[in-house]
Amino acid sequence: MFLCNYFGKVAKSVLITNVAGFYEENEIVEAKNVLFNVVTTMKLGLDDVPRNKQRKSGDNKRRLDVDDIMTMLEFLDVKKVSLPDFVAKNVKRLPSICPTDVETYKWVEAVSEVKTQLADVQLMLKTLSDNQAILAKTVSSVAGMAASTKQSDVPYNLPVSSADNMGSGTSASLSFVDMFANKDDEGEWFPPKIVKKQNGRAVRRIVGGNNSTDLKVKAVTGSAEWHVFAGRLDPTTTEGDLIDMLTSKNINVVSCKMLRKTEDWHHKYAAFRVVVDVGDKDNVFNDSVWPVGADVRDWWFSSKHS
C-alpha cells in the first residue's frame, strides 16, 4: 500500500531506503510474495514478467527485496496494467511521515547527536582544565618545599690535583679545586673543601721563558711527575691491571696505588692514585685510553703538602 501510493511521486532510491529502513525483513518478504502472487493470478500473458527472486539472508537482503517490488511496479506501469487496491491490515505499521521529509528528520537527528557530542567534549575539557589546575598547584607546592630545604652534601667527592705543587704550566688544572679535595698521601676520600673566593682584581701570573745560561737568578726545576686520580673502576681492578693498561698506551707510569675504602659506598668501585711522567700529563687524559664510565681527574694537594 505504501509503495503503491508513492510510486511515481517520490524517487525510487528514496522509497527503497525508507521501506528497507522501516519494515522488518519478514514483512518485506511477505509483501513481495503477495504482489508477485497477485500478478501471477492475473494471467497477463506476457513473457517478460519479472520473476520472484529468492534473496539470501544478509545485510543487503531487505533493500534487494524492496528493489524487486519496485521493479515489478515499474514493469506493470510500463505495460499499463492496473493492480487491485492494497490496504494495510495494521495502520500502525505505516510510516508516519512523507518519504520526502525523511531527510529533514535525519538532519534534526544529526544536529541532536552533534549537540550531545559537543556536551561530552565540553565536559572532558572542563575535567582536563581542573586536573591541570590541581597539577599546577601541586608543582608549585613541591617547588616551594624544595626551595626551603637545605641541599645535602654530594656523597661522591673525589680528589683532583692542585697546580701549586705540580711544576710549571699547570694553572689550567685549578678549575677542579673548588669542587674536590684530597687530604693526605694515604688516599682517603673526604667531603669537599669549601674555598672562599677572593674579592678584588685578578692576580696576574706568568711562567718564565728565558733560558739564557748567563742569568744570575735561577728557577727551581718543576716536578717531573704528574699525579692523577682514577675512579669508578670495577672493584676487581688491581694496580697491576691499571699499570698494564696505561703502559700498553705508551704512557710511562711511575707508580700506582689503590686508595683505601673508608666508606660503604667506596666498595662499589676501585679508585687509584696514579703517578705518570710529566711528559704524559696530557696523554693520560685521552678518553680513548680509559674504559667507558671511568672518572679520571688531576690530583689535588692541600696547602700543607705544597
Quickly describe the structure.
By secondary structure, the chain is of the alpha+beta class. The chain has helices at 2-6, 12-22, 25-41, 61-78, 102-148, 239-248, and strands at 225-233, 253-258, 270-277, 295-298.
Distance between the termini: 116 Å
Question: Tell me, what's the shape?
Answer: rod-shaped
Largest sheet: 4 strands, antiparallel
Query: Helix and strand string, N-terminal first?
Result: HHHHHEHEEE
Measured by DSSP, the beta-strand proportion falls in 5-15%
User: Strands of the biggest beta sheet: in what spatial order?
Assistant: 2-3-1-4
Task: Write down the domain tally.
Answer: 3
CATH architecture name of the largest domain: 2-Layer Sandwich
Structural class, judged by helices and strands?
Answer: alpha+beta
Low-confidence stretches: 150-188
Question: Kindly state the mean pLDDT as a whole number?
Answer: 77
- CATH class division of the largest domain: Alpha Beta
Name the helicity range.
Answer: 25-40%
CATH topology of the largest domain: Alpha-Beta Plaits
How many individual β-strands? 4
Give the CATH superfamily of the largest domain.
RRM (RNA recognition motif) domain
Q: In angstroms, what is the radius of gyration?
A: 49 Å
Question: So how many helices?
Answer: 6
